[in-house]
Write a structure and sequence with these properties.
- By secondary structure, the chain is of the alpha/beta class.
- It folds into two domains: about 1-85, no CATH class; about 100-219, 3-Layer(aba) Sandwich (Glutaredoxin), CATH 3.40.30.
- It has helices at about 1-15, 20-30, 35-60, 65-85, 125-140, 155-165, 175-180, 210-219; strands at about 100, 115-120, 145-150, 170, 190-195, 195-200.
- Helix 1 (about 1-15) packs antiparallel against helix 3 (about 35-60), helix 2 (about 20-30) packs across helix 3 (about 35-60) and helix 3 (about 35-60) runs antiparallel to helix 4.
- It is elongated and about 75 Å long.
Length: about 220
């Protein structure tokens, strides 16, 4: 039991400190966004139960109060540390967004599956690029446009450098209509079908559930 206890501590420790790497590995191996997000937390939860159990069986402590306290501490610690270092944010597992089926806005000259409405020098827009690259990698046929609400092409330079040709980037076709469609919240992720916007997620809403929904419809 002592060997099992040590082994479980190592596994939970590795999961905590390699949390993002584990999540990325699961995504790269075909797991859904939701499952890839959940599995590390499940490992830590189950690991905490097994660590507490193996400790109770492997170590003899005369004080029942102390032993019980340590068992509770060992049970809770893996998940607590994992959550502190990798918190779950509102919308991480949600697929809820806004229905746009009555919209007649044309966001681009070509037909795209996903148009991301952004503005220049936006840190959240920059942060979204890594996520979009992974969506494109997982769905090579998905057509993605990074649409920047600006009339100055020089404002595209940094975004273009980071995107590095993995998906399209262009000036917004209509600044006013694009900004209104995004409710002036950037980035906004707009699902498009036959050139017409049909569904929209804000940055807070475009979590694992939303990406699973989008990938399920684009495949």
């Amino acid at each position: 039991m002592k060997i099992l206890f040590v082994l479980l501590v190592i596994i939970c420790g590795a999961t905590i400190f390699k949390f993002n790497d584990l999540e990325l590995s699961l995504l790269n191996n075909g797991f859904s966004w939701t499952m890839s997000k959940m599995i590390p937390y499940l490992i830590l939860t189950i690991g905490g139960i097994l660590i507490a159990y193996s400790f109770a069986k492997a170590f003899k402590i005369k004080s029942k109060v102390l032993k019980f306290s340590l068992i509770i501490l060992l049970f809770a610690t893996p998940f607590a540390l994992g959550f502190i270092l990798n918190p779950i944010y509102e919308g991480d597992f949600s697929s809820e967004g806004t229905d746009l089926k009555n919209s007649d806005v044309r966001l681009a000259k070509e037909n795209y599956d996903l148009v991301v409405i952004t503005i220049p020098n936006c840190p959240y827009c920059l942060e979204s690029i890594g996520k979009l690259k992974l969506i494109k990698k997982r769905n090579p046929n998905a057509k993605i446009l990074f649409s920047v609400c600006t009339s100055d092409k020089e404002n595209l330079a940094l975004y273009r450098q980071l995107i590095n040709g993995d998906f399209d980037i262009d000036l917004a076709k209509n600044l006013e209509e694009s900004s209104k469609l995004a409710d002036f919240a950037f980035p906004s992720f707009v699902q498009v079908k036959k050139g017409v916007p049909v569904y929209k997620w804000s940055n807070d809403q475009f979590g694992a559930g939303a990406m699973d929904k989008f990938e399920g419809e684009v495949k």
